[in-house]
Structure formats: structure tokens, C-alpha cells
Amino acid sequence: MLRYVLRRILYAVPILVGVALLTFVLFYASASPQSLARRNLSTRNPTQEQIQQWLKDHGYDKPLSVQFKNHVTGLLVFRFGKSDATGEPIWNRIKQGAGPSGLVASLVFLTGLTAAISFAVAVAYFRGTYVDYFGTFLCVLLMSIVFIVYVIGLQYLLGKILKYGPIAGFQTGIAAWKFVLLPVVIGVLAGLGSETRLFRTFLLDEINQDYVRTARAKGVGERAVLLRHVLKNALIPIITSTVAAIPALILGSLVLENFFGIPGLGSYLIDAINSQDFAVVRAMVYLGSILYIVGLILTDIAYALVDPRVRLE
Amino acid sequence: MRNVSFIATLAVFALTLAGCNNNPYPAGESTSNVLYRTLSDDPKSLDPSVTYTVDEAQVTDLIYPSYFQYHYLKRDPFVLQLNLGAKEPVREPYVFTDKHGKTVKGERYTFTIKQGLRFQDDPVFPGGKGRAITANDFIYSFKRIADPGVHSPVASFFEDKVVGWKEYAAEFEKKGKAHYDASLPGVQADPRDPYTFRVLLNQPYPQLRFLMAMHFTTPIPREAVEKYGEQFALQHPVGSGPYLMSEYRPKQRIVLIANPNRHPEFYPTEGQPGDREAGLLRDAGKQLPLAQKVVFNINKEAVTSWNLFQQGYLDAAGVGNTNYQQVIAKAGMLTEEMKRKGVQLKRDVQANIYYIAFNMKDPVVGGYTPEKRKLRQAISLAIDSQAFIDLFSQGIGRQAESIIPPGVFGYEPEYKNPYRRYDPDLTRAKQLLAEAGYPNGADKKTGQRLILNFDNSATTPAGRQLVGLVTKQIERLGVKVESRSTRSNVFQDKVNKGQFQFIRYGWFADYPDPENFVFLLYGPNKRPGPNASGYDNPEYNKLFVKMRALEDGPERLAVLRQMRAIAVEDVPWVYINHDEDLSLHYDWLLNVKSHPIANDTTKYRAVDVEKRAQMQRAWNRPNYLPLIAIAGLLVVGAIPAVSVVRQRQNRRVRRADAPEAAAAADSNNNGKASH
Amino acid sequence: MGRFFQSDLFYNLVPLLVTAALIFVVVRARRQPLWAEAYRRIGRNKIALTALGVICLYGFVALLDSIGSTDPKTQTRRTLLDRVFEKEKEKTYSAPGARMTTGEPIPSPLKAPGTHLLGTDGVGDDVLYRTLKGCRTAFIIGGLTSLIATPLALCLGLLAGYFGRRTDDAVQYTYTVLSSVPSILLLIALILVLGRGLLQICLALGITRWVGLCRLTRGETLKHRDRDYVRAARALGVSNARILARHILPNLLPVVIISVTLGFSGLILSEAILSYLGVGVGAEIGSWGNMIDAARDELARDPVIWWNLTSAATALFVLVLAFNIFGDALRDAVDPRLRSS
Amino acid sequence: MPPLLQVENLRTYFHTPRGIAKAVDGVSFQVEQGKTLAIVGESGCGKSITALSLLQLVPEPAGYIEGGRILFEGRDLLDLTWDQMRRVRGDDIAMIFQEPMTSLNPTFTIGYQLVEAMTMHGKFTGAQARQRAKDLLARVGLQDPAQALRQYPHELSGGMRQRVMIAIALSNEPKLLIADEPTTALDVTVQAQILALIRDLQREQNMGVLLITHDLGIVAETSEEVAVMYAGQIVEYGPTSAIFHEPRHPYARGLFASLPARGRRGQDLATLEGIVPPPTAWPPACRFEPRCAYRWDTCAQVPPKYHPADSDRPVRCHLYDPEIADRPARGAAPIAKEPVAPDPTVEAAR
Lengths: 313, 675, 341, 350
Description:
The structure holds 4 protein chains of 4 kinds.
Chain B: H1 2-18, E1 34-39, H2 54-63, E2 68-70, E3 80-82, E4 85-97, E5 103-113, H3 135-146, H4 155-159, H5 165-175, E6 187-189, E7 196-201, H6 208-211, H7 222-228, E8 243-249, E9 253-258, E10 293-298, H8 302-310, E11 316-318, H9 324-327, H10 336-340, E12 343-349, E13 352-358, H11 370-382, H12 385-392, E14 397-399, H13 427-435, E15 451-456, H14 461-475, E16 480-485, H15 488-497, E17 502-508, H16 515-518, H17 538-549, H18 554-570, E18 573-586, E19 589-590, E20 606-607, H19 609-619, H20 625-650, H21 662-667
Helix pairs in contact in B: 11-13, 12-14, 17-18
Chain C: H1 2-6, H2 8-29, H3 33-44, H4 46-64, E1 68-71, E2 76-79, H5 80-84, H6 127-163, H7 165-180, H8 183-194, H9 198-225, H10 228-235, H11 240-277, H12 288-298, H13 307-334
Chain D: E1 5-16, E2 19-31, E3 36-40, H1 47-54, E4 63-72, E5 75-76, H2 82-88, E6 93-96, H3 110-119, H4 126-139, H5 145-150, H6 158-170, E7 176-180, H7 188-205, E8 208-213, H8 216-222, E9 225-230, E10 233-239, H9 240-245, H10 250-257, E11 306-308, E12 314-316, H11 344-349
Parallel strand pairs in D: 3-8, 3-9, 6-7, 7-8
Antiparallel strand pairs in D: 1-2, 1-4, 4-5, 9-10, 11-12
Helix pairs in contact in D: 3-4, 3-6, 4-6, 6-7
């Protein structure tokens, strides 16, 4: 098991290097450091010395090759440097934002997955009946609504009109549940349609397999067939598809956090976009990739746990 | 078994709902003596040498007091009163010979601060107890402004006036932080009195008093700056004001609590006529600050702040396009709904101006020839300020006739700018345009339509409205306007580099002196200084220098009028409007009187905690009816599903009503299945 | 030549040619046996036909909004759609069918009362007009992105799958790296770097989108590479280029077309999200994303400005729904075993 | 005493986009306790659907049982509710399938799947079931039953898996075993072993066995009776020896003629020409008519009746119907002697 995990991690290294390379090409080749400095100095009339000072502070004064070396090595050891806009160490904000972001994202992920699987099982149980048709149609309807409309509409409805939770704010610890309630509900609802529909097809695929017929011939009831035999097999494609949900989760965090004033990485990134803070965007792109790769490794492990055919050696 | 788990789920759900409330603050906090304010974003810095925006100053000025402060209640004129200062500074002529051997007639200010002032308690001081404040701490803050590494925005205010400033500032490059040990020639300690320091100027500069009322000149503990480094700016401010920072959570909140080491300060005992009736002297003579705690909520979206205000979770709010109709009924009065909720409306004249600035270096719209002037005059005549006021200031505010706003010396309400007389037919404007060489908006020589580029940072819907308005108004002249929208920082960059034809801009007073406005057109202040249009008229510049040294009075007014006449004729700007500030607060917030310049007014505010708590409860009862309705619908919707399950369980393959007729079945085989 | 690219003729020719090409391909494909069967199946599917009708309707509006001429007086290009909605702007917001404005301190009468079926927005533009304007943006984003991503994905996928070894390694590495950056982050980074604008967004979306299709193409090519007919062709000395173009590519087309159709709705949706994140098309281009984005403030107004959000969200919803339904039907018709994901 | 299983006029139809497919269309047969009935026929004749219909496992919702009676120990299974039927499956009637590679759930251990079958019907407690599982595995011939219990299906070979399937089927000592092509996917040697195993177990437990197969070779060795199925109908039904000795129905003749036999060594293998038509396009009258070497005009107009020919063997052919006036003399026309291309379906099914 350990060796399997280690090998998976080893595979990730060249990809990480590739991402570091990509971010370097994107960010260093595009904007002139001079104009970055000008934009970010709060003085009204920065002198050349001030600009030089800023360039020095942010490491833009070195030759491109050195910058590249610093960039890649810095990323590999999580040294992200300072924000272009505020001069604050990026790692500080990442540390602060990771908690709230992680909370919202993981809750949305887990609740969403549970809900989608439950609904998919329900719809699959009623396959061929109008419950199935109606449910599938509902899923297509739900997945045709753009995420932003969910957030705007439901925040307005649940937060402002019905007052089910705070519209903005955040507290750490137990008190956080109150603040994440609405974002999580919205996040889950927004993803429900497409996930349910996808999982339904996975389940229906499995339902037509021979082993299901065997189970039925043994006298296993319909519910047990679905929940035990079919679901466990359908989990394999479901797990594969959850990796694809990571980018959606990140997007969800971006929007939800900003709308509900949750001080996470999402709102940090949006600020960075608005102030063209390349250093922060760079760090976040890299961090997002790491998350994705970690997700990939976790998926592989989960995969190995569910599917006995995957060999761990 | 199934039912049990179902009931358990319901119970958990119900409990969750019951525990639901939308109070965004830690339990119990909003029932204590705390003020709730809002910031539109994280401060970029709370370093008193750097902070410049109003939002940041709201916090900074509570932590860092200055030599002077503005009287809370008095207006017209604004009154500067001593805060940390022990007595009015002594102002004497100071004549010296500079290094070129020229005799310079300057000025010397002697400042004396109160004794017994202390910084807030902080581990950086011996024993963690706040150290006594001396003149050196003031001098240190001057040195910080001079330090190019600090990036102080007011450095330019001093560098050409304070003796030896430029040379001192240049040394930082070589010596780095150690240079703070060297003395700044123009700002000197009194060797005999640790509470006195002098500022030497190479020219008369009456505005220095105002600068001494800004947080830039607050005493700063050098040990704290050196210990906390970058942390000093945000996470770890160390000041001496009425409040100190107890908590800072980026993107969430800044919490200030009363500083036990603050110097005794009391609520003013006198104000303007009407203040007593308005209840503003209720707390007269009480020690400040009145609220023990101030919470700044950081809400990026204006909408969020407004929603929180409506729920009673913010004590005050601004009025903008989003909430105008809900708040204001007619003639600037509050709507019944707002009155019922106990909301109070405050309208305040602001010392500010919004304008369109032409790039005076631009080959098309810039320049000082009569034709170019006429082109700008024509455009100026085409712009209807009232439309701007209606659209962006809810119809409240004054049309601007010249650069000086109401409330500042030199503002003359009866003055009418000949090029700001809007006439819907644009007869005069069109005539001027023709004289400028563009009859009906087309170039006389080439016959091509004149195309102007309007640079802006309009990436929001409101910005789109602005662009639409400007375009619509100018295009009535027959000229075509093309909008160039970029993000605000790129836009700023373009402005600083002078890569634009015209822009819309605004200026808010730093201090209530006309110099703070007319310097926006002073040639040497050109980009990237405050003079964005790059206007440079020698005559105007000469008058400006003269005006700066004068005290308010008829002579100064005469000079200001001359300057106005020049600028009005040249039209580097189209003056649009002076904004008025509309703000709302609940009646549980007491002693509310806004101050256009001062940013430390929070310390005078008090709150009726009980009333607030009561209202918050009353307004925030969740409405569970729809939830119950949805649950009901789900149950109803589930009935058919349940019946499907039932049918499945009890289904028989044979239809009960299908009699078995074997023979019939056998002969049935014909035909039907064919083809 | 530069003048030509700026001319009305060019701007009108491009959408017309694209439409003509599309119709030509659709009509020609009917003759292919595989597609004929698919046409027959879709022809029987009433819901799919309705969805297709809706898509065509949107496309028609987009076409109307693409053809126009420059008004010599104002030097602005006005499309047919602009001409249909030739009305003077109102002052500001007004509710659907209302007679007075609503966003102002004191409501003022409308210039054209009762004619704004969906009301007007903050600058007094007709909301129906702005909603219809969004069609073109949606189709450009969907279409142009597909035009960028599909050839790229096809080329690289075919090469990687067919030649294997180094080529395959290089292509695989490229897309593995690209796909391990969560697409939204990559999009943001790309648009920050490229700048805002319709073309840039399409380019950025294209760069993030080709990966999935490339992976698919590579997999399919691998399958076909070892089939007998390819081996036979190779044995007969047919050149690699010809094998790829004449033998393998046609077999991939169904998969590619389905995947592009199904991806279309995702592209249209991403425009709205990008607008919210501040990296969408500029404010001057009419798009549903911009309208929805504006609703954040509008919903907080009182009285609530709901018609802007509702119109844009509905327009977007209907188009995406139509694409989803039609895409599914197409997939079922061409190859029931294929599945989205 | 009624027979163990008596099927009367069973009809199982499918909804398809091209109309209703009558996959099983009026099938009747019976299985006695301890005896074996084999249903034979080409692929696509409806044999497997017949078997699945008995347990009501026809793929839903497309497939449904249109009518008929399935009397099991005198009780009509079609009268049972879904839930009652569930209790019959795996307990009274067990089934093994033709695809041992896919018929076991890949994500559960063999032990789990065996134990589940036993505990499902409440006959055994968990511990008993585990012990019995080991015994059963040993009984069906697995080398190391204890280890096999812990293994996953993919770790076993096809033959082993089919043994496991048999173990699962027998775990509740069913009265009737339906074996749907149990050996098709296996090697010839393994085939023989599996068949022997089934036979042994049948004798031990006095089970009735319904054997579905297209492999006539194994029919002779295992079954007492044979039903020949074609296009959803039984065309000939009778004792194995009689049918092997003298098939009556032209289809049966063709079928048995294609069987290599010692007596016909050196001759060409006669094969059936053409394929089974799809269930939606069955000929209107005699369904075998298009392929029949004996056909005449009437065959395409009047559906043949299913009635006993001589010696109590029902045959569905005009040749044996005395009421058909224009029938030629039985056996007058010879079996097609011309060499024909091998029938692809028969080949593919093997």
C-alpha cells in the first residue's frame, strides 16, 4: 500500500515541474515588471528608485534565468513570496484562507456526493417509471442553470427573504456552521443535477450486468441489489468522476466565498484578479494544481480500496 | 426501523433550524457596548505614514492621534483644536542662506506636545507597558515620510518646503535604515525640552497646521516599527489613540477596543446652534471614547453591507443607487418604511469635486491656442451636470462651477462659469465647435468626423452607465466618442503616463484649505502628481505660489479669483459636481454628526445597546413556512413513488383480469408479428 | 487588404459563410449511411427536434446581429438587430411594459411607454434587445472556441495516437500538465495575461478545452490504428498522412461531433461565470454574463430590478437546455454506447 | 402427484422500437422431480428468455410476461407477488448462467456472495452459512475452499467460477435447478467435469433440472426429455432417445443432422440454411417455413398446430397434421443435400 502511494506521488513530480514551468511562461513572459511596480506602488508619483526598490523586494530585478530558478524551486518548496499588490507574504494568507475554504469545499463535496448518490440510487430504483423520467428531466433542467444564478437567486431567497442564515461573515470553530449553512446548501443544489444524472448512468450501466441477475436469482431483494451489489460497483466510476469535480469545487469556492463574505482562498483569488496581482494568481494556480494532483492520488487510493482488481504492488 | 431513522433525520433537521439565526457576530457580542461599522475592503495598510484612503483612515485615525484634531461639532469654518499638542505652534520667520549663497525667507514652527502621553501597552516596550511619548517620536514619523522605502503619499507635500529634506531622503538609498539615526535638518528636537520640536521651512507654508492634523504626523514608536517590520502596517499597529487593535481577521473584521493608556479626552461641551436640540450634546464632557469596542466588518460587496444594515447588524450605512428608492421618498425625505424602522438620514456637504480632465498634452484636445480652447469650451458646454447628479448622486449635490468646493475658503456660490451654462439646444457649444475648426463635429479640412477617446475603468454596470452618459452628451455635438475601458489599475497607469484624451476624475479634500484644490492645476504638480491633466499655465503657477503663503482674507480671495478666471478660460477641466454625502443610521446610534475632513469621529459615537438588541431580534425571525411547504410538497410528491414501491412489492406478473384462453393465444400468433 | 478586413463586407461575409458552410455540411452528411440513420432517429425524436428548433432560432438572432452596415453619419456599425430595435434610449430602469422609470429619485415618464416588453436596464436600453444581443456572444464563444480547440485536439490526438512513442509522450505530458491545473484557474491566468476581450476568452477557453477532446481522439486513434483496414492500407504503401486523413479521421468524426455539441453548453455557461469573476467579455459587449453579473446589485435595490436577471438567465437557460437535450439525442442517435463525462 | 414444474402456454414479450417482440410465444413443458429436461435450439430461439421467465428475471421494463401458467409444485408462480417470488428464487428454484466470467460480483469475495445466498432465505445463521460455504466449495471441487472464500472472482479461472456459481445455486438445496448453457464458455474438459458435477448433485438431492443448451452433444448424456425450440415456440417435444433416434420436425431434423455421429462418419455434415429471423419479424404462419426444405404453399398461409404426432410426441408441423389436406407424404422430401455454407449463428454460439 505504502509503496503504491509513494509511486503515485513520484509520478506527480514531473507534472508539478510542468505546472511550475507553465506558470512561469504565463506570468513572467507577459507583463513588464516596470508596469507591475507602477501599478502596485501606493505613492502617486513613484520615483525610479522606488520602482527599483519594489522590483528588488519582489525579486523582479534579477535576470530571467535566475527568476526562473527561484520560481521553480520556490514553488516546489511552497515558498510563494510576497503579494505584488499588498506586499504581504502569500503563504500567510493561504494559511488563513485554507481553513474556511477547506471547510466549505469539503462540506459541499461530501454533502453533494452523498446527496447525488442518494438521488441517483432513488432514480435508478424507479428506472423506467415516470419518477425516473421526471427525475432525469429535472436533472437536465438543474444542470442548465448557470452557477451564478443559483448563488444570486438562492442567497436572495434563503438569506434575505427567509433569513435562514447570515448573509455574510464568518467565525472559526463551532460557530462556523451558521455561516457555511447557506453556501453549502447552495453549492450542493447547484451541482446536484449533473452529478445525479451522471451517477444514474453509472448505476444503470451496472444494473444490466450479469452479476446483478445472479444476485436476483439468489433471491436478493431489489433494494439490496441496488444498495449493495450495484452501488459498490458503481462507486468505481463515481470515484473517477469526483476528480473531475475538483475544478468545479474550486470555482464554487470562488463564487460562494465572495458572495457570503467567507475569508477563504476564493475571495483572496478574486481580489488578486481585480488588482492583477500576478504573484498571488501564480501561487493559487500552482496550489490548485497541487490540490488536483493530491485529489488524483487520493482517488487512486480510494479506487484501490473499492475495486479489488486494482493491484497495489 | 426505517421510520425510526426517518424521524431521527427530521428531528435533527428541526433542531438545526431551531438553532438557526442570522446574527453574524460572535454570541453575545452585539448586546455589548460595541459599534458596528463597515469597510469595503481589507485596508492595504494601517501604517500612519502610508494610509491614504478614507476607509483606511477610519481605522488608522482611531489608533494614531495627531498634534491637532478637528472640532467634532463646529463647522464653517472648521476648527482645529489641540489634541496631542500642548499649545498652538509658534510660527516665526526664518531667514537663512542656502548652499548657493542665496538668502531664503522661510518659516520656523515650534511644536510643543503634552507631557504624560503614553503609547499603548505592547510587548515591544520594557515591561510591556506603553512608553512615554516625546518629541522624538514625532520627528521619527517625519523621517519615515522622507524615507523612500516607506512610500508615503505625502512626501511631496514636504520635500520642496522642509529644509534639507531632499538631501536627507536621498541618503536613505545609501545608508538604509541606519539613516534614521541621522538628524533631519528641517525637523529638529529641542535639546533642552524633550517635548518640543521645530520644523524649518524654506518658504511660508500655512498649510502645515493642517498636515499636523493628519495621521501622517502622529508619533510612531520606532522600536515597534523595527520589531514588527511589515507586520506593523496591518497586523501589529502600535499607537497612542483612543482605541487599539485587538483583532484583525483579513476579509472578516477589524476589532478595536478602548486603549487604557489613552490621554484624557472629553466630548465637546459646545457646538453649533442646533446641536443641542439634535441631542448632540447629550454626552457633553464625558470621557472619550464612548463605545468600548468598534467592529469594522469587511464587506466587499456594497449589497452585503446594505443587507446587513437592513437586518440591523450594522449601525450605519451609506445611500447609493441600490437603496435610494427604498430610503428616500420625495424631496430628500426618508420613506415611511425607513422612518418606522427608526432610521435617520444625514445629508452633508462634502469638500470634493468630480470633473472631466482633458489631457493638455494631447494633440487633439490639449494645447493653449484659441482653437483648442474653443474645442474644450464647446465640450464643456455640452455636458449637463444635472444628468450626472441625477444618475450617480441620486439628484443630490451641486453643479460645480469652479475647482473650489463649498465649505472651503474661496468658494463663491454666486459665481457662474460661462462655459458651464448648459443649454439643451447647444447653440453656443456648436458655434464654438465650429470656430474650433469642427463644424458639426467634422474636421473642416478633411471632412472627417472628430473622434475622441474616453478612457475609463468602467467595468461595472454603473461604469457602463457613466460611459453611456458621457458618450451620449458629447456625441450630440456631432463628435464621436469611443470608450476605452480597462481595469482600474491599468487605467491608473495610463493616467500616470498621460496616455489618454479625457477622463472623469474626482478629488476629496485632505484639509479644508483652497490650496488642497487649486494645486490640482499647478504645473509642477503634473503627472504622475495630482495634476492629472498636465495643465501648466505660467501665470496660474505664479499666482498659486503667491496664494499659498497668504492667510485667508480678501487678498487671498482676490488671487483665487484671478486663478479661477484663468483656469475657466483655458478649460483643462469640465467641472461637473460637488457631491453631497447621504448616510443612514439607526436611532440607537447616538451623537452622529459627520465631518467632511476628520476621520476619527467614531470615538464620539455611542450606542443604545438594548434597543439595538431588541430590534435585531424583531427583524430577524426566520420564515420557515416555505420550508415546511416544500417538505409538504415533497411528501405529496413521494406518495406516487411510494405507491410505485407498493405496486412493485405486491405486483403479480399476471394481470388479474386476463383470462387464460390457451386456444385463443395459440391462434393469436398469426399476422400480428409480421413485417 | 487591411481595409478589407475592416470593411462591412468582411464582417458580413464571415457569419454568412459560416452559416452556409454549416448548412452545407448538415445537408451533405445526410448522404452518409451512418449519419442518415442518425438523422432518421433524431427525426423521430420530437423533443430533440424542438431543441434543435430553439437552437436554430437563437442562431438566427445571432446571425441577425452579425450582419449590418456602417452608418455613414455616426460612423458606427449597426446590425440588422440594432435596426429592428431602433428606439431612443430611456433614462434608466423601467419595469416590463411600464410607463415610468424606476431607478431614479423621481420617476420620469418613458419616451416609448409600454413598448419595452422586458423593461429597460440601468442605461435605459431595452432588455429584450440586450438579451437578444447576448445570442451572438454566446454563439461566438461556443463556436469560435470549438473552432480553436477541435482542430488542435484532433491534430495532436491523431498524431499521438497514431505515431505513439515520443510524439505520444510529448502530447500526453502536455495535456496532463494542462489538465492538472484546474480549468477555472488556468482560464483566469490566461485571460489576465492575454487581456480581456471576446477573442482572448475564446482563445483561453480553447486552450483549456482541447485537452479532453485530445484525450478522446488519442484513445480512439489507438483503437483504430491496429484495425485491419489500417494495417492493410499501410501494407499497400499508403502514406501516413493519407491514412490519418482518409481512414482514421472519418471514423473519429461522430465522437468528435458529439463531444463538441455536448461541450457547447458548457462553454456558454462559462461565459457567465467568467463575467462574474471579472475576466469575462468587456462591459461594452452585450452578454448574458454581464447582465447576470449586474443583477447582484439590482436584486438589492428596492424596488427590486428582477427583469434583467430573469431575461438573461432564462435566455441562457433555454439555450443551454436545448443544447443539452439535443446533444443527448445526437449521442443516442449516433452511438448509444457513448456517454458524456 | 403433479410434476415439479409445469409450464403452460408461457408467453414473454418485449417492447422494442420496432414493435412487440414475441420472444417466447406459447411454450408448454414439464419437469419431473429428479429428472432433466433439455431445451435445445439455435441462438435467438427464446430458450434463455424461457428460463428467465420462470424466475421472472426478464429484463424490465422492456420485457414482460404476457400470459401462461408456471405451476411449481402445483402453485402458479405468476400469481405470486414480487416479494413472494423473491423468496422462491435461489431457494426453491436456483439458476446458473452461461457467463461465469461476469456472473459473479467483482467487488465482493466469493465467501460473501455464497454466504449472502444462504442467509438471504433465513435458513442458515452467519456461522452455519460460512461453514456450509466451505463444505459446498469443497463439494463442487475447489482445491482450497478456505482460501477461495477470501478470494475475489477475478482471481479464479472460468471453470472455478462456474463451480462457485453452482455452489451458490445449490446452497439452499433447491428443488429445481435451471442451468442456462452452463458450459458454453468453458473448455471441453471442464465442460465434462461441470456436467458430471451437476448430474451427481442432481442425483444426491433429487433435483429437477431444466437444462438450456444449444449443444446437442451434452443433451444425450444428461437429459431424459428434450424440447426443441424454434422462434419462440416448441416445435418438438419428447423423450431424448426418441428424438435423437428419429427427429420429426424438419427443424429438429436439420439440427440433429448437423450433429456428428458415429454412424454418419464420412458424410458431409448437413447444416441448416439461413438464420433465425429476429423476433419482431417472424413469419406469419409457420415460423420455420422460409428455411424449411419441406415447405409448400400452405406452410406460408396456415400456422401449424402443435399436436401429437404418433407415439405421443407433439410436433408443430403440417407434415404431421392429418387435417391438412394437401400435405405430401411424410419424409418425402429429402434433407437438403447440397453443400451449404456453415451457418454463422450456430458457429458463433459455440
